[in-house]
Design a protein that fits this description.
By secondary structure, this protein is of the alpha/beta class. Helix content is 34%, strand content 28%. The protein is elongated, with a radius of gyration of 23 Å. The structure holds adenosine-5'-triphosphate.
């Protein structure tokens, strides 16, 4: 449904995107990840027909995103990274304007979305907080039930409750067969929704991964607390795959094979057990310089 072929944009300063190639199949959710300034928004602006490629093509549903920009923009639900609103109007008027441009008659879906995101659409846009503007942007992107959604950092500015709601909405869209490209710094949101992820750095697509494969390869760490340091020493030398060790605690990495682990643990004085899952962020970290990592579970920038 989305096809990017040899896409290139060279800005005067030598930055840009270079020979990008990827596809998003109908009904697939593609997570587009990358550190600050990697080229995510530039790619997305090409997909929306706002930028002319220096080389190559971006296509959506067979349409050329630059040549057929007007048609593409009608077809796609788009949430920009930074929304430029008209200042003199309120949220409802802004949505009316977009609905008019798209020839959308029914307000049913829009009202349902406003109800879910819980905001007063009559508030003047200049008085809205960042999060509230983001909600208006999301309603604008989803309200015409588009076959393709392109979302540039959709949860920025949303509080955790609204982020959760957004993920639910995205999963519903996925269920309906909507094709979705979502750029994000939030690994967890990508992990819960995406089928595949592409990682862009310095304008180059450096990796593509199938999220379901990654999840199947995901390891768990069983953290065992032992009655004494001597017991912990003994367990550390038992031949199990020891991932880490802190005092009386020994972390053991497992991937599907639990029988041997529990048989072995039977011979030890254990006072506690905890299970930790290595999340995809940890698996992805090797694609980034450590310096790019802002820390925490939230981002990769
Ligand atoms: N119009 C422009 N002229 C010159 N350079 C530009 C222009 N637009 C973007 N760039 C540069 O191209 C690079 C990619 O920018 P882009 O906004 O696509 O990154 P991004 O991955 O979306 O980053 P962020 O996470 O910060 O939004 C950056 O170095 C940026 O400074």
């Amino acid at each position: 449904m989305i096809q990017v072929t040899g896409l290139e944009k060279r800005f005067g300063n030598g930055r840009g995107i270079f020979d990008l190639n990827f596809q998003v199949k109908q009904g697939e959710v593609y997570g587009y990840l990358g550190p600050n300034g990697a080229g995510k928004s530039t790619t997305i602006r090409h997909l929306m027909g706002f930028l002319k490629p220096s080389r190559g093509h971006a296509r959506i549903g067979g349409l050329d995103c630059w040549r057929d920009a007007a048609e593409v923009q009608k077809k796609v639900g788009y949430l920009p990274g930074e929304i430029a609103f008209l200042d003199g109007i309120n949220g409802a008027e802004f949505l009316d304007l977009l609905a008019g441009m798209r020839g959308l008659k029914s307000k049913a879906r829009r009202e349902e979305l406003i109800e879910r995101f819980q905001f007063d659409s009559k508030t003047p846009i200049r008085k809205m907080s960042k999060g509230m503007k983001q909600k208006v942007g999301l309603v604008a992107a989803f309200m015409h039930d588009p076959a393709v959604l392109i979302l540039d950092e959709p949860t920025s500015g949303l509080d955790p409750l609204m982020q959760k709601l957004f993920v639910e909405l995205l999963l519903e869209e996925k269920e309906k067969g909507t094709t979705i490209l979502i750029s994000s710094h939030m690994f967890q949101e990508i992990e819960r929704t995406a089928d595949r992820v592409g990682i862009i750095k310095d304008g180059v697509l450096i990796a593509e991964e199938n999220v379901h494969d990654l999840q199947a390869r995901q390891k768990r760490i069983i953290e065992v607390t032992l009655a004494s340091a001597a017991e912990a020493d003994r367990l550390a030398q038992s031949g199990l795959a020891v991932a880490d060790r802190h005092g009386n605690r020994v972390g053991i990495a497992v991937q599907g094979e639990y029988q041997h682990l529990f048989q072995t643990l039977g011979g030890y004085a254990i006072t506690g057990v905890d299970v930790r899952t290595l999340d995809l962020e940890e698996l992805f970290m090797h694609y980034y310089d450590r310096n790019d990592h802002m820390g925490g579970k939230e981002g990769v920038r």
